[in-house]
């Protein structure tokens, strides 16, 4: 009902008066945005439905939406700019965080981030349904959440020296586990487990790990590591 009322209000603005751009048969579509504050936290609803439900801002949230969307539609028809209105306060610096800061993570002498602590057996062959596990020396994932990349990746050999991404940590078959090798240890492990899917093609594979380490001075440096190649038959 809220969606229908919003569409009807905008349609009236676009088709009434002297507007020649939109005819009476215009079809209104609401394209929901993602990652927007008011939409994703709670739905908005009509005043009547609010009596048995809730919205984040008030019972009149829908009326506020309709008011502002009508302004946008009017500006679109008339070619006028629309004032952005007041901006919400930025309270980021006033928030209290109980999350401890990232401490410096160390590696054994002669070992770098991304080096293997546990590799697959040399010249190993696995079958579909097997669990392939490798362990890397790693740092804290909070140094870089890798939102535009991945912590774990399975690659398949596509040519003589060409590795092609096959699975990453979006796939349920690939698991990334970050842990300490011992209590109070300054070292960290990244365990990557690949449960080979039934749909995996036969070929030569390897498992890779990506991360970011933090120095004593607070600088972030990215690293990567790779397992030995193995066969899926």
Topology:
Blueprint: H1 2-15, H2 37-41, H3 47-50, H4 61-78, E1 116-118, E2 125-126, E3 131-138, E4 152-157, E5 163-168, E6 174-179, E7 188-195, E8 203-214, E9 220-226, E10 230-232
Parallel strand pairs: 2-10
Antiparallel strand pairs: 1-3, 3-7, 4-5, 4-8, 6-7, 8-9, 8-10
Overview of this protein structure:
Residues 1-67 form the Neutral/alkaline non-lysosomal ceramidase N-terminal domain. This is ceramidase. It catalyses: an N-acylsphing-4-enine + H2O = sphing-4-enine + a fatty acid. Belongs to the neutral ceramidase family. InterPro entries: Ceramidase_alk, NCDase_C_sf, NEUT/ALK_ceramidase_C, NEUT/ALK_ceramidase_N. The protein has 233 residues and is α+β, with helices and mostly antiparallel strands. The chain has two domains: 2-93, no CATH class; 116-232, Neutral/alkaline non-lysosomal ceramidase, C-terminal domain (Immunoglobulin-like), CATH 2.60.40. It has four helices and ten strands. The strands form two sheets. Strands 2, 4, 5, 8, 9 and 10 form a six-stranded mixed sheet that branches. It has a four-stranded antiparallel sheet with strand order 1-3-7-6, with no helix packed on it. A hairpin with a 5-residue loop joins β4 and β5 (163-168). α1 (2-15) runs parallel beside α4. The protein is elongated.
């Amino acid at each position: 009902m809220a969606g229908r009322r919003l569409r009807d209000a905008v349609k009236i603005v676009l088709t009434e008066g002297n507007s020649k751009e939109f005819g009476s048969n215009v079809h209104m579509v609401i394209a929901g945005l993602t990652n927007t504050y008011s939409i994703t936290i709670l739905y908005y609803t009509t005043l009547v439905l609010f009596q048995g439900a809730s919205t984040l801002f008030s019972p009149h949230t829908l009326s506020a939406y309709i008011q502002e969307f009508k302004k946008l539609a009017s500006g679109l028809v008339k070619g006028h700019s629309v004032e952005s209105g007041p901006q919400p306060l930025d309270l980021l610096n006033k928030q209290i965080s109980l999350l401890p800061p990232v401490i410096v993570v160390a590696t054994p002498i002669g070992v770098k981030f991304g080096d293997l602590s546990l590799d697959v057996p040399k010249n190993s062959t696995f079958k579909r349904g097997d669990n392939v596990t490798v362990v890397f020396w790693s740092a804290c994932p909070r140094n870089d959440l890798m939102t535009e990349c991945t912590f774990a990746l399975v690659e398949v050999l596509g040519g003589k020296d060409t590795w092609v991404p096959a699975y990453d940590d979006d796939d349920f078959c690939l698991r990334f586990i970050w842990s300490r090798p011992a209590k109070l240890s300054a070292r960290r492990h990244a365990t990557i487990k690949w449960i080979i899917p039934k749909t995996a093609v036969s070929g030569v594979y390897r498992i890779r790990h990506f991360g970011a380490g933090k120095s004593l001075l607070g600088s972030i440096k990215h690293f990567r590591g790779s397992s030995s190649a193995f066969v899926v038959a």
